[in-house]
Amino acid sequence: MKRRTAREKALQALFQIDMSKVETNEAIEHVLEDQPSDAYLTKLVEGVLEHQDEIDQTIVNHLEKWSIDRLAHVDRSLLRLAIYELVYCREEVPANVVLDEAIEIAKLYGDDQSSRFINGLLSKVKQAL
């Protein structure tokens, strides 16, 4: 599975977990749709969940006049995913790739403003690293 596809599937799984409180394995299995499992997809989902408190605090630290609870579920899940890659996969994935991928995925799954919002917040996080 290509990394872009793994990121999209990870976003879908994280969204399901956030909305429906389903188990991690069940969410991953559901988004795979009978395709073979993917190590990077699993790493992303489990990594975000493992570090979610720290990731959410990073989001809160960079939000202006906004609370994390008010974010669209898709945007929040995508930010968690991208920040996980920025912080915990630095050796593996260049920061600019993370930002570009997150922006492109936001265009597909978010609303009209999502890609600009995601870009702005992730740029602040990247500068702070």
Notable traits:
129 residues; 74% helix; mainly alpha; 7 helices
Description:
The protein contains 7 helices and no strands. By secondary structure, it is an all-alpha fold. The radius of gyration is 14 Å and the shape is globular. The N and C termini lie far apart (about 30 Å). The model has no long low-confidence stretch (mean pLDDT about 95).
Outline the secondary-structure elements.
Elements (H helix, E strand, L loop, with lengths): L2 H18 L3 H9 L6 H12 L1 H11 L10 H16 L6 H15 L4 H15 L1
Taken as a percent bin, the fraction of beta residues is under 5%
Largest sheet: none
What level of helicity do the residues show?
over 70%
- Rg estimate, integer Å: 14 Å
Class derived from helix and strand content: mainly alpha
Report the count of strand segments: 0
What oligomerization state is this entry in? single chain
| Helix and strand element order | HHHHHHH
Spans of at least 5 consecutive residues with low confidence: none
Termini gap: 29 Å
Shape: globular
Mean pLDDT: 95
Number of helices: 7
